Amino acid sequence: MTVAGGSRQIPKPIAGVSNFVDERIGAGNFLKRNLRKVFPDHWSFLLGEIALYSFIILLLTGTFLTFFFKPGMGHVEYTGSYRALNGVMMSEAYASSLSISFDVRGGLLMRQMHHWAALLFIGGMMVHMLRVFFTGAYRKPRELNWLIGVLLLTLALFEGLTGYSLPDDLLSGAGLRITEGVMMSLPLVGTWITFFLFGGEYPGEDVIPRFYSLHILLIPGILLGLITAHLILMWVQKHTQMPGRGRTNENVVGSPLYPAFMIKSGAYFMFTFAVIAGLGTFAQINPIWLFGPYTPADISAGSQPDFYMGFLEGSLRLMPSWEINLFGTAGGTLALSVLIPALVPLGIIITGLVLYPFIERWVTGDNREHHVVDRPRNNPHRTSIGMTAITFYGVLWLLGANDEIAAFFQVPLNWTTYIGRFLIFAGPLAAYIVTYRICLGLQRRDAEVIGHGVESGVIKRLPHGEYIEVHAPASKDIAEHVRGKQPIPMISGGTDGDGIPPKGMRGPLGRIRATMSRAYGGEKVPLEEDREHGEAAREGRHAEIGTGGDDRGSLPG
């Protein structure tokens, strides 16, 4: 069912529920207003729900695991069902994790579902934020919700780190050791933070209990509050929608919350739950019994973190062994080989996400409200910047497994490091250039659709022997979708009749801003048919593919 945002008709199911509630608690008007809220139908608007439903599954499975997990670092002798480790001394945390896996009914399924849900939670947020970024859905009035989303992603990374370390197996211990090294490299406060977290010299006796408190109490509480605020803002503000027929900044075209969107969301939740349950059942993840208990003197070959921390691992592996000795031996050593890869890549990504909406508004001077989003091709610079960031992340993520790559492809490990150092600079630059050209090519294709129509597949021979392909006008839905393109705003950096630049454009910063605005904004490929092609389209012919003696034909575009 498609309902325009301004429709006044109240469906019977909504009226019945509203009357039932209103007669008891006087909330009829509230329900009538909110149950009729319209949600867009485009599939990409459901990407954020993957993260939301994964978070719900995380809470449910995590609650189950808390009944059986013991967050202690006291040494015990293992006497459980996994005979390969019988008699081995280990921490209480690791022993309880083994017990959950082998002795608690459904425990291994819950552990694996929890782990897969965590990966899907972070992956869903990443994909959702990419959709928001590439379509420009972060623009006014949604900047605050964008910032909440960035904070949610940042906290989710730390939530994943604390949960990953709780089983106290050899693999998670290797990651914890890297975390300790990163904290120790921080100038001035590194030693204090490390002693505070670990309760003394590494590994101490307190890190697992403290991570446990962070993982099940503090960070989830903040995440729950931020998700609630995120949903409230989304509910109060008008939904964004893709350009198309009947879609404007004043309405929303889609399905009402009740019953259409509720049914769709309920089915989508069940689908998400089924996928996570299927992965937890059939796809083994984090088999801690194979790694053994963590001891600071041991390390396993081929250790890899979960994907969301892989880019930090890659930055550590690519970074040269640089350090600065401050004030000689009396000062200290600034370990740039740890400090830079631990802080700079994450700082670039998070800071860029936080600042980009405001930088774009400053460059374009666009202070309008936007409720119809952009197609990514129609803002080629923004799309290219996004692909640059993805490539930067992807190179670091890939090189986080350079030892596995070297072993599998039988190439020297140093080669993978040197190639990675080259790609970390050349890859994002190439991604920007290629993406920009692709966006312009797609815009030209849209202009051809509007100016010439679409290929019909019908080849026609004209009386003089020329062969042509007949084009048909684009359907109204396609045409309106393409015509939804809006020119990117620009700031005028010119002068008035007296040769005086406008206020704010008179200094060096103003001139830089005007130059950036001209490069970033404007119409790159107008949706205008040229006269020759326009006449061809009106005559019902286009894209000659051959002639009987005249070589004027061309291949279809």
UniProtKB/TrEMBL annotation:
GO terms for biological process: respiratory electron transport chain. It is found in: Cell membrane. Its cofactor is heme. It comes from the Bacteria. Its EC number is 7.1.1.8. GO terms for cellular component: plasma membrane. Pfam families: Cytochrom_B_N_2 (PF13631). Residues 520-557 are annotated as: Disordered. It is a multi-pass membrane protein. Residues 525-557 have a biased composition (Basic and acidic residues). This is Cytochrome bc1 complex cytochrome b subunit. Residues 17-243 form the Cytochrome b/b6 N-terminal region profile domain. The keyword Lipid biosynthesis does not apply. The keyword Transmembrane helix applies. Keywords: Cell membrane, Electron transport, Heme, Iron, Membrane, Metal-binding, Respiratory chain, Translocase, Transmembrane, Transmembrane helix, Transport. One of its GO terms (molecular function) is quinol-cytochrome-c reductase activity. It is an enzyme of class 7 (translocase). It catalyses: a quinol + 2 Fe(III)-[cytochrome c](out) = a quinone + 2 Fe(II)-[cytochrome c](out) + 2 H(+)(out). The chain crosses the membrane at residues 50-69, 115-134, 146-166, 178-199, 211-236, 267-285, 334-359, 419-439.
